[in-house]
Amino acid sequence: MDLEDLRALGAIIKAKLANRPLALCDIGDADGLTSASLFLIKYPNGVVVFAPPGKVQRGRLYRLFTWDFVADLPCPGKAIIRADHHETNKPCAKLEYYDPEAPCSALLAMRALNLAGNPIAESLVKVAIETDTARISSEEARQVDMLARFSRYGEKVRAASMLAKTGLEALKTPYVKGIVDRGIRSWEVMLKVADALGVDKVINAYFNVKLGISYRQLTIELQRRGASMVNLLVRLGYRTFRYYCGADPSSGFDCTKVATALGGGGHSYAAGAQFKAPLTRPMKGVEAFINALRANLNLNGVELLMVTKDTNGFSVRRVQVA
Hints:
Diaminopimelate Epimerase, Chain A, domain 1, 42% helix
């Protein structure tokens, strides 16, 4: 059991002992954060646990308990209400608000929690739609996206509560501004990485260095520059890897094919996975990534951009894989 699991277990025990409503939301993006805030609007005394999709799919801890509300995640096994729009997540809760055509899970969460017409809820959902469709046009959406991606676990819990109480006014507080500023600095590094990777029709990159950037933002930026599909593999630990995918909806590429091959899921235009390589063969994770690309993108050979650490922070070299 790692630190994330211990935090989750502590929150679960607190909720169960006090008979408080319990929610499980995606840890990774603004859709999960805003869904958590909607839950706290409905249940101010509620307790929110954040987790990544892969852990909910495979982690035993999340299947031991009944969740009052689940949003933007696969079903953990026992749930009363679930709001989700991911193509690869099968419904299973007692009350499902599931629509793969919905622009974000927060819109479904607002319906599930009967919050339509609530001004704070409506403003949060508007932002979630912008962020989850990668069509950020407002400053508020940009800041909430930064807040979700660059807040640490405890900061994310506090941010969800602040958004529930004061809505987008929370973005004006010094506490939230500090997190957003951290995100802006990371954004500047991400743009340098995008410059170094260049633009091809299909970009496949492996990161063996921690850069402190949002890799989802990187996929969006590379697509904005002209890439039809972006596949990124990031080494998180000795044998833990995270896959990020973005694809132009009109390109014919399908992110879910590669993501599901690696044990994840999502949408055809955006998907991901987190997985572990064998303990004795940690680099098997890179091999699994290459094999998934080759098998699901009809590629005979794979050109891989290797991002490693150097004296300037990082360097990129091209490797042709047979």
